[in-house]
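Hello Y.,

Per our agreement to keep a running log of every chain we model this quarter, I'm adding this entry. I've kept the format consistent with earlier entries: sequence first, then predicted structure.
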Amino acid sequence: MHQVDFPLSLLQLAEQRWQQLFGAQPYDKQLGRLIGLSDFAFRILEKRPELGAWLQQLNVDCRIVPKPLTGDLVELSELACFKQLRLYRQQYWLKVMWLDLVHQNPIEDSIEYISKLSEALIGAANQWAFAQTTKQCGAPLDELGNPLPMLVLGMGKLGGGELNFSSDIDLIFTYPRNVPTQGGRRSFESQVFYTKVAQKLISALNQVTADGQVFRVDMRLRPFGESGPLVMSFAAMEDYYQDQGREWERYAMLKARPLGEETCYWDEFKQLLKPFVYRRYIDFSVIESLRKMKHLIAQEVRRKGLVNNIKLGAGGIREVEFIVQALQMIRGGRDVGLQTPSILVAISELTQLDILPSEVSHSLKRHYLFLRRVEQYLQAFDDQQTQTLPDSELDKVRLAYLLEHQDFQSTLPQINQIMESVRQEFALVVGDEPQEKTSFDDSYSYAWLQRDCLQLEGVLEAEKLAQWQNVLVEFDAKLNKRHVGIRGRDILDKLMPALLHALAQQKSSAELLQRVLNIVEMIATRTTYLELLFENQGALKQLVLLCGHSKWIAEHIAKYPILLDELIDPAALYKPLPLSEYQTEIRQYFLRIEQDDLELQMEALRQFKQAHQLRIAAADATGVLSIMKVSDHLTALAEAIVSQSVNLAWQQMVSRYGEPQGCNELSKGFAVIAYGKAGGLELGYDSDLDLVFVHNQQGDSSTIGKKQISSRQFYLKLAQRLMHLFNTRTASGILYELDTRLRPEGNSGLLAINIESFNHYQQSQAWTWEHQALTRARMIYGETELIERFIEIRKNILCTARDEAQLKDDVVKMREKMRAHLSKDSEQAFDLKQGHGGMTDIEFIAQFLVLNHAKHCHELTHFSDNIRILESAVQQGVISSEQQTILTECYCTLREHYHLNSLNQHGRCVLREQVVDQVEQVRNIWQQLFN
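Predicted structure for the entry above:
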């Protein structure tokens, strides 16, 4: 029961309107109250007075949501459809006003009911638009011949099921697959078909007719905003949010919810978006972006001169939403209960998880619902989308009555107190508006805006300033050829002064400036990365440091900008995984990826490699890891990727052909042998992988599946699939360059052979150089039985008795042949790898020692890396301790030079004078061993 009498001015208005509507009919207090409180209700009843009797007979506890459209949707004309939708909205929004203004319905129930009614209207419009377009164009069908629907995403309060009375609706349209239409006069591309559906749907809701409008439809939240396509496929949406999704879009997508009748594609789309919205880790980076969003809103409020705004003002509805959604985005990746578009559900969940104290959550909920009730009343007065406290005396009286105050002035302390309380909570969680202060003077801004490095005179010496100027002018010229949007230019104008300052603090060379600007040039059209660097000054600092340490890192980031995400957390960046964890990490990484999405799997493999290579390089460049440990990590990473790739290829082959007899997921009968740097645990950043594939199945066996093939064919196809996974160039490049020429018979041999055929070839047909290669071979993937058999085969081959003179002759001739073809030696420059006295000479020495002495010293076959082979050789008395020390130290020194050259893209040559002592020592030992 209302505690305040109905004001006289409203009573007089109600009685006057009653006369207009119902003439001499007895005055009804409740219906009179409705038309006195709402101009919108009066206008509806003016056109449809019969709805007055309908309201009086309503069960106020009933929340029925009838279908808005009746009849066959294919035959329903546009005129009839538009009319039915608009009359439906009039009738049921009148009911909501009856509940709210007359019966004081709880606001949480009203906004939920309006959301359900709105969803019914949008769903009906979508079905009608789809049916009409299908009649003209046919429809895209799935594999079973069912039409592929267009999903309509409700955003904002509609998505949260908390729509206000007179809101416009934010929508995004998407569809599952790119499939041409069938059944029409001609076939249409799916993009064309769904665009037609979307256009019809928007018109059905947005167009103003004699019966008014259903909703104002806002499509600006879609990818690329107003310049983007009206509707996009799931795959295109995923690519957009992965590559270009901005922080505010994460915030927006948190509220996204498919509308209408649920289909099997709803969950698919939700899973697609989840990694973008919710991070796996506790994500405090959202605080700053939400704070800045609030800052922009506050600027807009000031610019428009908005006062008394209960939504956008300090302590308004938006700040409650920011508090809750900030906590959702921070912790939602870990606590799945927070992955909800409903703010009320989220508040409840935050309380249960002890993230918000119960007294705070209860206060927030109470204040939020009060402000939403005020908003509901303000909009119901005249069906206007307003959140501003009224100026007109009539609406002031109405609001005071509904809030149970004697007059409008007495409502203000209550509203102000509630908004101040919300403001305090917002400051605690999100913080105050940022002041864009910088730690440097304006000269850096002038240097960028005027493209004039002379503004930095006194910071850097004149010669360096001139070099910087040349680089900056060249960068600006390149930038002008790229299509950088207004938002991108705005961010660049803020980022570049900060970047110039960070580089000047390091007294950076023009070369380092060039490296960093190459990265900025590559990301200039992708504002999400520009924003990442601007909003994370720590990430910007790490970028400058890493580019200073390594040209390879700079080029790697420029090629794959997604790696900029790795710079946000320096603690993780400089701490590679333990060697044993790469296998576990990649398995966990792939749990989030659909098994049948080959394209996504290939991208995921490459991104996993790139992210972890960057971590290894960062630790390497800053001295956290020694060169030997760097190779250990790069090798462990490669092994994990090979293992995961075999599993993916296996799943794809088995789904098509079934499993070979006696095999399963855990016992595939398939193995991978690594040669060269991978086998010898000496991988570098750009090393290729020398691999050989073997299996243990007999040729007469076959697979067990609908499409049976021989086991031999199965393993050949499995190896081909692996080659495809590795060598195909995607948006993220190739995975590794795979080289399989070391397999039996080389390029003319089978890509995958039985391990016993491998054994037979090594025994009877292999050349000496192939046995040399076998000294550096390891099986890096395979079950125990295959690993043990390979170790046995390798040991037997390496321990074979050989004629020493013939072996020396073979090794020397092969070395001279390689040097003649590959060495880049000159009088001034020394080729660290192929030069006379270089790394390959030491590798050949180690291989010779194994092949010449393993028949008596089996221990020489235990290891595949040069350092431990040399250690084993001195233990067996094959070489002297002095020779071992010299070869080991020289090999490490040469590798260190080679490695530093790789990090800075300087090729494999150094000035001869830098390594003259090491080269001379290696040559002497070569001479001692090979006469």
